């Protein structure tokens, strides 16, 4: 059976009805006879959503104990055993409770898809991983549960579930989303019209990008070259001249006028690798484009207008921005220019904007790049002067008779002009035509092809030799100039490439994309294999060309050692390009090796850190755990001794010592185990609405009575937290504060709400901590000041911060005004996340 298909209902905001839409789709499929089951659906107590469950088969949930509560999770094994055609799995970004097979629900969905089961699921736009910072800046709430964007992008279908902010607020006001007592708070915080409009825009743009990717793939697969103006794409053509920055800014303003507008800057160089642009100016323009949110492309093409139009059509561009020509008026005799040619050939589906600038009509100011040694236009002028020039000169000289010497000098001048323009062969043609005309018109006997005076023969021979010599020098100089410019271009490319690679600024895909653009290829891939008989695998690939599985299937194959090759498709470049291609291939291998070495280094660092933790754990066990054990053993041995008659007071004191030692052991072992869990990444919090006034009092069990003053109002909003982890974190912080507080001074534990967050402050009047040590006290196995060894292994605050950050919160140390230390633990308020249906349980628990 093949892989199942995934359909995701993407909610533009909480409460728009994505679960309702998923259930409605399931009922439609069930009515058509499709085998649909409910693997997990969270109705949030909404009657209309619950009504849609009627008639749908539900796989029993799996109930897990966590943090003193029983929570329901999807029973993955039961769904796999049932093997339905379609499974409904709500809340794709959900974090599973500890004890589940996978940490996240989307990983459960991957197993269902791999088993050939189609899945209908839901996710809110606020839970996409890449949008976490953006959503937090809009709503003030950081989503603790996220799903990687790539998981959603891989879905076979993504359906946007949308609603206007006004309609969604009416639904909220009617009580269709939250309980009546929560409506006012929600409407004035998360569900403000601006928040909802911004979330809606994020969802629309994200879905539009995904649709655009599908459209580009469809156009590539079906070879569609016509422009489909589904969104504004602005292509700005750059020459590398100083006017480029003006054009980029103008194009960026055009792109901003339409929602979802895209800016693409393209610089076109000739296929011989020569460039007339300043590398520094191009680098500055690339940076400007990227700062404005666009992308920079380097394309190879001898016919610049055609290459520009090909790129624009391939990118499905709707507008092209070009600068006014820098040509002077007389230069238009050589052709209409790039702007006029592009405007003539672009067709009716593309607009061309010609932007004026300060450099217009001032001359190019840059050396001209040539594809051939002297360029096709220059060769044409050379042949014209070399063949027609002597004839025109003969007609002009027929009116006067300056003498043979002057005639020869005039014909020699024409030959030199032909050499300067067209090189060797036009000059030789000019010398041949000129010598024949000199012989026929000016050498006695006139109007015959014979020469009577030997001196005239010598003069004609010298004339031909001088013309050929000048032509050879000009042609050789042109070729040497071409070679020097080409080598300079190659050195600039390789220098830029090597610098980026050495600085680690270029990834493998970025490097392959530069290869593809530089040489005008359709695709570029780095292939490798383990041995001579092993199959090839693709280490990295870019471009839209046909996939290449073996180097011999590519248009260009550049081997890198025995078991790696750079494979390019699109065209066969000239032989002289293979040197640069070989350098690119070698650099690609270096980048791949560096990436793997970095991964190995990261693993080695993790192992080293693990070894450090284990060494510290052993040191803690060897000393800090031995002390309470020794005390317990001494007390027990004393009680069991038959030589001493213990009084009731002595016996009670020894028993109290045993109990204190056992409590210390329990505390130390608990911190050691918690630190180990944090280090290995096995702490998976079950985030739900939690009351601070229930958790904080339970955290006081390890400190003496009357050592803490509580100020935790019952009116505080619930927090998004794991009750068990929160209790342990608070206990460690409070015990640390009590340990360093002066005798008779109570530690104050106060809580307050602020802007969608709840802060818990633990205030002591102890000696405090210097600023430079405030972060160090949260490191494992750190004791501040002269704390004795028996005071613990230095893990309490490290565990507290680790648990707090695992719940999406923060724990920081600040000075207490008047002396002492204040620990501030900050968590997200559950009331700021109205999509969490468990928030309503707070009032029910308080009422009970």
TrEMBL record:
TM ranges: 380-399, 411-437, 457-478
Occurrences of domain Histidine kinase (ranges): 620-831
Top-level taxon of the source organism: Bacteria
EC number annotated for this UniProt entry: 2.7.13.3
Gene3D superfamilies referenced in this protein's UniProt entry, alphabetically: 1.10.287.130, Backbone structure of the membrane domain of e. Coli histidine kinase receptor kdpd, Histidine kinase-like ATPase, C-terminal domain, HUPs, P-loop containing nucleotide triphosphate hydrolases
Cellular location(s): Cell membrane; Membrane
Coiled coil residues, start to end: none
Lipid bilayer topology: Multi-pass membrane protein
InterPro entries, alphabetized: HATPase_C_sf, HATPase_dom, His_kinase_dom, HisK_dim/P_dom, HisK_dim/P_sf, Histidine_kinase_KdpD, KdpD_sf, KdpD_TM
Principal subcellular localisation of the protein: membrane
Name this polypeptide is given: histidine kinase
Catalytic activity: ATP + protein L-histidine = ADP + protein N-phospho-L-histidine
CDD domains recorded: HATPase, HisKA
Keywords (A to Z) from UniProt: ATP-binding, Kinase, Membrane, Nucleotide-binding, Phosphoprotein, Transferase, Transmembrane, Transmembrane helix, Two-component regulatory system
